């Protein structure tokens, strides 16, 4: 093997190991909930009481430093037409123009992330797709949008339109992280979005 190639491989491996160590350091940041002695890894599911503790932790802990992600991603062109199949009734709704990107690329990611959230959150929480279906929607027309429905302890239902980014924030929050993963595998502090998390979960937002 030529010497130049060997050196390049060594540098590549060293860079990869550095990224792994940095990610491990970020993942383990603040693994114990203050004042409780509870390790986040011990939490099989998150209840409303634990949501309050995690929000307080998010507000008071020092945010971690950002970690830059990959810089070279080639964008895939969205199709001119996308067909949405409703998981409730099985009917099809056709989308065109700007909505095709959401239907083809963002929606599958939203569903995957929500499945992660639903597996952790010990509460009544639902990803509502009914407004995307022209047969199920009670609005004037279907829209390429998702809504997160959360039922609070007193029976109040809070509904917010959500994006994949919102769901990324919630997934990281429920997993006890102080950061969230960006779309290119970077890491950014979660603390600036604490109020958005409160809003999505129907919790009071400090003035």
Written account of the structure:
- It is a single chain.
- The chain is 37% helix and 18% strand.
- It is globular.
- The chain has five helices and nine strands; from the N terminus they run αββαββαβββαββα.
- The chain has one domain (31-200).
- The chain is of the alpha+beta class and 207 residues long.
- β8 (179-181) and β9 form a beta hairpin.
- It has helices at residues 3-27, 48-60, 99-118, 164-174, 194-200; strands spanning 32-33, 38-39, 81-85, 92-96, 124-128, 146-151, 157-162, 179-181, 187-189.
- Average pLDDT taken over every residue: 81
How much helical structure, as a percent, in the residues?
Answer: 25-40%
Helix/strand/pairing category: alpha+beta
Number of helices: 5
Give the strand content: 15-25%
Q: Could you give the order of the helices and strands?
A: HEEHEEHEEEHEEH
Radius of gyration: 20 Å
Any descriptors?
two-stranded antiparallel sheet; 5 helices; alpha+beta; 207 residues; single chain; disordered N terminus
Task: Tell me the layout of helices and strands.
Elements: H1 3-27, E1 32-33, E2 38-39, H2 48-60, E3 81-85, E4 92-96, H3 99-118, E5 124-128, E6 146-151, E7 157-162, H4 164-174, E8 179-181, E9 187-189, H5 194-200
Antiparallel strand pairs: 1-2, 3-4, 5-6, 6-7, 8-9
Helix pairs in contact: 3-4
Can I get a quick summary?
Helices cover 37% and strands 18% of the residues. With 207 residues, it is an alpha+beta fold.
